[in-house]
Amino acid sequence: MTVSTHARRTRVHVTGAASTAVRPVLESQRRPARVLAVFPTGVYLEVRTELEPAVIAVITGGAVRLPNAVLLATPLPRVTVGDEASVGDRTIELGPMSLSVRRWWDPSPPLGRLDPARLAGAAELLRDPPGTGLAGNAAVDLLAHSCAKGWLLGVVTAAERLVGLGPGLTPSGDDVLAGLLVALRHLGLATGSERAQPERAGSERAGSERAGAERAGADQAGAERAGADQAGAERAVWLADWLAATVTYDARTRTTPLSATLLHCAARGEASPEVIAVLRGLAGHQPLEPALRHLHRLGHTSGADLAQGIAIGVTAVLALSGAR
Amino acid sequence: MSTLFNSPPRVITVGAGLLDEALRAQAVPTSPVSWRPPLPGTGDALAKVLADPRRREANELAVRRLTAARPHLVGLRRASELLAEGTFLHAGPPITWERASGPMRGALIGAMLLEGLAGDEREAADRLAAGAVELRPCHERATVGPMAGVVSPSMWLFEVRDDEHGGTAYCSLNEGLGKVLRYGAYGPEVLDRLRWMDRVLGPALAATLARTGPIDLRSLIAQALQMGDELHNRNRAATSLLLRELAPAVVEAAPGEAAQVLRFINGNDHFFLNIGMAAAKAATDAARDVPGSSLVVAMARNGTDFGVQVSGLGGRWFTGPAGVPDGLYLGSYGPDDANPDIGDSTITETSGLGGFAMAAAPAIVRFVGGEVSDAVRATRSMYEITLAEHPVYQIPGLGFRGTPVGIDVTLVARTGLLPVVNTGIAGRVAGTGQVGAGLVEPPAEAFTRALLALAEASK
Amino acid sequence: MNGLPQAVLVRRGSYHDSVTLMRVSRALSELPGVRAAMVAMATELNVSILREMGFDVRDAGPGDLVIAVRARDPDAAVEEAGRQLTAAHREQPGPEEQPPLTTRSAAARAPADLVLVSTPGEYAFFEALDAIEAGLPVMIFSDGVTTAQERALKELAEARGVLVMGPDCGTAVIGGAGLGFANVLTPGPVGVVAASGTGAQQVTCLLDRAGAGVSHVLGVGGRDLSAEVGGLSTRRALRLLDEDPATELIVLVSKPPDPGVARAVSELRLSTPVVPALLGAGAPDLTHATEEVLRTLGRPVPEWPSWPAWRGPRPAPKRIRGLYAGGTLSMEAAAVAGQGEFVDYGDDAFTRGRAHPMIDPTLRVEALARAAETDVVLMDVVLGHGADPDPAASLAHAVARTAACVVISLIGTEGDPQDLHRQAAAFREAGAAVFTSNAQAARHARSLL
């Protein structure tokens, strides 16, 4: 940390890490911002910009790495709600602090290829997360049913009713939608991924002729199923695109500024590591159950609501690909 | 499943601070190691010993045996059952009369008088100088002795058996504080007390233990640690616990002498020290002779040299000059009156007690010259040079963390951190007795030499 | 010249790492009234350097710290050294705390994902071994680890299933976190396995410039692909990246490997394509290899930024003098230029008892001063984490004053803390031609002859 004295006041130059989601806002021309909320481990800044994320979370220590976050390497400065700040020209000016980024993380890391059979096995664990904010809500049920059927009108209708529904900085309705958006986009891409399929199938060559003949039959069945997966995956991504367009269209006027920004992020598949960890668990890249428990613990109901959204997404991806 | 690609990685940094700072500037969580170069002249030996493919498993086995030992006090024996005629045992690595310090000489003279091998002090000294008695380290005979640690054939020894591995270890009976043989005093009151112990105390305790059956020392020590003992310089709780175990059986076994026996034990806060030392010896002996192991199985001083033995190197001693303890002095005594470090009682530190368990004994931190925080830091620092945390010996103040146990010679050399030893201080003039108590730093060269020998023996 | 008073202070058993000490030494030397200053551990080498500087150091060993100053007011300078050393020691632990003294201890305390070892080379083996025994991947930044130790570490790591990066691994980027000398990179689909630190920096900086983005950079150490080491780390690194869903393509940056090892590596069954970026005679340069990667990804190849010199070439330059901090960059430039004298100041021979030229510009500043009017000086300036926070501040002046014509290969990204554009502008202002492609810089240097 270096301290330099300017004519007016002392600026403290600090560094940190940031989600690549905030990079366009941070690297464009400097714009005024103001402090929206202050917590022990984070400060939310609202930036006067048409770009998203328009709300940036400046966080520290153990705070959730939201997809719109900039993580400080040092303690937070003392600021209060309404304070002036600025974001842009690669710098965040907040209180006495001038922050520049030394590391970027991807809030939407690719999942790689995912076998729908594995997804079906893991889906049970996602059923009925405890402590959701909208348990039994009709709009949530409509959303789930419509997604599973690929019924776009039902999805859009349910989403319209859910945006901004519930109390708090991130209303439950938004969290469910965000979980669903991220799940549809990532799982859709992962189950439809063309990259690894041919190589994986071709890499197993050993075995006797008889085994080879048996495998030929299995391969054929596998190829047909792969075709169905492919089509289902495309429909999941298609659904994600429409849902994204619906919730981002007027999110800024219908929910809190922070929640609107997080919906914009989710629309692009961007989420906190806790959400990504569950998706990675579903893909078999890490243990699923601890990741789920971790997600459930987030916020008051946020974690459970996000998990409910993910569960709806998983069911939809499976249903659309014909695995259910 | 590799966590390497966890984003961001949590990084342990060791070496240049600049690289740690660069990571912190990126908000990457780091745990910097406070690294320093190893003890001078140990670099090549460390490379060899650490590369020995046997080391890791050998050390795991050795320290597992050390911490799994279940020492029980089973009885008493006459030293003559272990010793050939004309042999005395003493504390520490081997020593000759010529090199022996004041208190060691005093204790040897006292033993000559006790055994009737000399008529007076001068004759005893002459005969000892002439080699009339063979001097052997206690450690060679599965025995330990506090301070001078002199054991002569007629003395009683506690017998401790390790139920886990079947080993047996011995230690003399504690005479109390003040003018005592183990501090090199040999006046009439010293010899009178020893004769009473020979005639009354020994037989009474032997008969008592025959009634009680084996006493579980592992559990007794674990309880004493939670009652503020560290089992080297404070044995008050352990002595009390033992007295509770013994009292009814003493009354039954020796009704005529029960009062004097119980009064004697009750009057000596350190009565348990010798039993604890035998327990420690039984545990450390279980860890001996594992080829390739760099675990320390004995630390002992004879008043002139400080010696260590290592599991992978058999019975060889590696020595350096014994230091003078730094501590508090009794009455008008001062550092000039102090003898260099002496005694086998460092077997307690070797087994994860004593200085290593200092944080368990806030009551004596002033006695060893410090604040409670010094005691906590002393114990915490010992985790840096030990291989394990004791599964049963725990420290309440550290959240019931196991005591640091199993000194690794390679860790001592790498960190330059020497074992913390609590000790009593003997007067340098024969016959003076105890002059104080405090902390003493072992000589680094004892560990360096052991390491060089391990390097020679490594594969 | 030795007329000023001097002070020599020995602090027993006070250890500081060489980079910290070098920074304090430099800060002291720059104080007004200070003629000479050195703060160092009293190793044999350092004591002999101090003697050459005219300081009398007695009775001090490698575990002791020496502060030696010749100044108008030496006591004040010694005091300042003490102050700076305390400041360098971050956050003092509480009275009851015991900081970990070994990697083994640190690994036992809290979960970790990686160990970064940068102790003096002869001791790096101990810490690396601790890491592997704790089941942790390790990056060994230190050089001077013997081949036998490297082999032993990598065999043990293979048995435990962990990755060893190095020894002499100058750079790695994991999940965007730059370790050692590394650049601020945008996350993306390209994974890099590198037996050469600066080679990997050149490739990743160009990829970043092209907007391709990098998932991870795993260093393996310069000797990994030799017959003695057998490519153990390269194989493990390739498998790790192959399993990583974020990595769509792998670049392998290396000098030409041992043929047997190359075969073993190529026999790995990977589902991720691998593009080699090999260096040496006949091999295309790193810029070319990077362009190949971009084509494989189906991305456009941009113009690599360069800034021409504002002053024209001097009359008849006769030879190229390469003054490099990066060994691989030096090798590449020598191969592309096809002539000239190249010195790698990052070599062990120059870094014993002195910090790496990416941090300490002294030797190259001196070399610039020595260069002749008929020389073309070709040099690299590497930006990023760990490197000099402002290389232009110390080098641009020397560039401006040298008699030679200077061509600079500036390795860095837009995100680097040193500000790529400001550095380029400063060197250009000093009269140098600046290139972001080392190969292009070398070609330009040759064209000046």
What does this entry show, briefly?
The complex is a heterotrimer of chains A (324), B (459) and C (449). In chain B, 36% of the residues lie in helices and 20% in strands.
Please describe what this structure looks like.
The complex is a heterotrimer of chains A (324), B (459) and C (449). By secondary structure, chain A is an alpha+beta fold. Chain A has helices at 23-27, 116-126, 138-149, 152-162, 172-192, 196-202, 209-249, 251-254, 257-267, 273-282, 288-296, 302-320, and strands spanning 2-5, 10-19, 31-39, 42-47, 55-59, 69-72, 84-88, 91-94, 97-105. Chain A contains 12 helices and 9 strands. Chain A has an 8-stranded mixed β-barrel with strand order 2-6-5-4-3-7-8-9. In chain A, helix 5 (172-192) packs antiparallel against helix 7 (209-249). The model of chain A is unreliable at 1-7 and 194-218 (pLDDT under 50). Chain B has 14 helices and 18 strands. Chain B is globular. Chain C is α/β, with parallel strands linked by helices. Chain C is built from 16 helices and 18 strands. In chain C, strand 14, helix 11 (327-337) and strand 15 (341-344) form a beta-alpha-beta unit. In chain C, helix 7 (197-209) crosses helix 10 and helix 14 runs parallel beside helix 15 (420-429). The mean pLDDT of chain C is 90. The chains are: A alpha+beta (324), B alpha+beta (459), C alpha/beta (449).
- The poorly predicted ranges of chain A are 1-7, 194-218
Helical proportion of chain A, percent range: 40-55%
Number of helices of chain A: 12
Biggest sheet features of chain A: 8 strands, mixed, barrel
* Computed structural class of chain B: alpha+beta
Order of secondary-structure elements of chain A: EEHEEEEEEEHHHHHHHHHHH
Q: Which chains make the largest contact? A: B-C, 53 and 71 residues
Helix content of chain B: 25-40%
Tell me the radius of gyration of chain B.
23 Å
Taken from the alpha-carbon principal axes, the silhouette of chain A is globular
The structure class of chain A reads alpha+beta
Mean pLDDT of chain A: 85
Instruction: Please give the order of strands in the largest beta sheet of chain A.
Output: 2-6-5-4-3-7-8-9
User: What about the largest sheet of chain B?
Assistant: 5 strands, mixed
Number of helical segments of chain B?
14
Query: Ends of chain B: how far apart?
Result: 33 Å
Query: Between the first and last Cα atoms of chain A, what is the distance in angstroms?
Result: 56 Å
Report the average pLDDT across residues of chain B: 94
